[in-house]
Amino acid sequence: MNRPSTLHQRLETVTDPGRLSNLSDNVIGACLRERFMADNIYTSIGSSGLVALNPHKYISASSDSVMHKYAAEYRDTSDDKEPLPPHIFQLATNAYYHTKRTTQDQSMIFSGETSSGKSENRRLAIKTLLELSVSSPSKKGSKLATQVPASEFVLETFGNTRTLFKMTRLPCSLS
Q1: Which domain holds residue 65?
Q2: 112 annotated to a ligand binding site
Q3: N or C terminus: which one in the chain shows less Cβ crowding within 10 Å?
């Protein structure tokens, strides 16, 4: 299918469809599709919303080095920096530092169909929050950084049961 390259390129680079002047369901859908086709699986919706589309494949943008770039971006106060694209690391980093700055609690809601990537994005968000909160190499921090993911694994394992007749999913997590 041949698409007009200018429209394709324009929609692919739109990181927040809410800022477009001709906003409609079709435009939002086209924007999400073009970004997904370019392996840009995260799209901002306003300043605190994020749409994540599950690529069902490994995306290198979920590595530890990328997570550290988002933490560094938040701390960088210079005006000439190039903003990083939307990501779950960015959302978690913003929530963490907003809580530290204002002492107001923050929430992240992961919603979607089965196999839409909620669990993976929740794990990435928790990993980011742990990395930011346990930045000192103390013994207590190191222990916490390994115990939280391990306990989540145990909860998730026992939260998914299977019988002869049906698969039962009881969502259990540390969220």
Answers
A1: 39-169
A2: yes
A3: N
Does 117 belong to an annotated binding site?
Answer: yes
Whether residue 5 is annotated as binding a ligand: the answer is no
Give the Cα separation of 126 and 77 in Å (integer): 25
For residue 81, the model assigns a pLDDT of 84
Please tell me whether residue 55 adopts helix, strand or coil conformation: coil
Do 84 and 164 belong to one domain? yes
Q: Which amino acid is present at 93?
A: T
Is 61 inside a domain boundary?
yes
CATH of residue 144: 3.40.850.10
Tell me the mean pLDDT per 10 residues along the chain, length 175: 57 82 86 92 91 91 90 86 92 93 93 88 91 70 72 73 57 56
